[in-house]
Amino acid sequence: MTKQSCATALVTMVGAAVFAVSLPAAPVHAEDGALTKAWNSTRQGTEKAWDKTKAGTSEAWDKTKEGTSKTWHKTKADTDKVWDKTKTDTDKAWDKTRSGTEKVWDKTKSSTEKAWDKTKTGTTDAAHDVGKWGERTGQKIGNTSTAVGHDIRNGLTDDNKK
Description:
Blueprint: H1 3-22, H2 32-156
Helix pairs in contact: 1-2
Signal peptide: 1-30
Region (Disordered): 41-162
Protein name: Gas vesicle protein
């Protein structure tokens, strides 16, 4: 029951009670027929008030139910629209992310292959240079020994021929 329908029911019941109290009191020494008439009148007034309260409550409930139903359908429709838009936007974002990821993966793979090839070439070149370095070192040592030998001979003799 909503606040409004509860308040309506309460006001109607209070009105019925006020109505019942406002009826003239039957005289204490009245005839039995007058007392019965007053009692029946009060009872009928109370029943009418009760029926009116019951009908008002039912109408208020039906109106609330109808309004709630309309609100629910509108909310559901709005929610469906928002969900559809969210779903569409999510699909677009996913496709864009997936495409971007594939591009980045391909670029990374290509760069890795280039770096690997460059490292392999550099390693091969370095290995060849080490082999040549041994040959060059041997040549330099050989040339140095000849020069050192020449210098020693010149130092031991007075011959300044170079």
